Amino acid sequence: MFTLPDLGYDYDALGKYVSKDIMQLHHDKHHQTYVDKLNAAIDKEPTLKGQSLEGLLTSLESVPESVRTAVRNHGGGHYNHSLFWQWMSPDGGGEPSGKLAADITTKYGSFQAFVDEFEAKALAVFGSGWVWLQPDLTILTTPNQDTPINTGLQASLLGLDVWEHAYYLDYKNKRDDYVKAWWNVVNWEFVQSRAQQ
Ligand code: MN3
């Protein structure tokens, strides 16, 4: 059985950038629902019991068709959100340092140029989806709860949830304001630790 991970910080810890109301709803309701529906799908196909979440998501074609869409959507939702909570921190913000910072500057010209491109891609996602920074420092987007490891790509260094449920209570329809505010809570230490894996 998959379980909802703790946030690792208080619901109100991200202050004005992502409110307590959003964090409670997003974690306790949305993420919990992905966990519950993933578990319900696994219950229907006992051959899947005991498989890791990464294992399921990297070999969706071997998941029985009866639950494949549920595993893709709810397993993806569980995987993406479990990382998303760690990609934010009350001590976050600022810029990366060390090799990651140097590599971003080499690829994009400056940290700000990277931010600008990431934001442009976040705003270009039609409907619900995610924006990803990959280990080769390309920026990708996926619809729904799809995640790069579904298609054989490496696990992302960083990801941003641009579903309306991630920002609507605070920012209404202003996805651009949410994305700009989000940089203030990005946990670059965690991103850097993933870059070194
Ligand atoms: Mn979400």
Which helices and strands occur, and which strands form pairs?
Elements: H1 20-44, H2 53-58, H3 65-86, H4 98-108, H5 111-124, E1 129-133, E2 139-143, E3 158-161, H6 168-171, H7 175-182, H8 188-195
Antiparallel strand pairs: 1-2, 1-3
Helix pairs in contact: 1-3
The structure holds manganese (III) ion (MN3).
Manganese (III) ion (MN3) is lined by residues 26, 30, 81, 161, 163, 165-166.
Describe the overall structure.
With 197 residues, this protein is mostly helical. The chain has two domains: 20-84, Helix Hairpins; 98-195, minor pseudopilin epsh fold. Helices cover 50% and strands 7% of the residues. The protein contains eight helices and three strands. It has helices spanning 20-44, 53-58, 65-86, 98-108, 111-124, 168-171, 175-182, 188-195, and strands spanning 129-133, 139-143, 158-161. Strands 2-1-3 form a three-stranded antiparallel beta sheet, with helices on both faces. A hairpin with a 5-residue loop joins strand 1 (129-133) and strand 2. The model has no long low-confidence stretch (mean pLDDT 97). It binds manganese (III) ion (MN3).
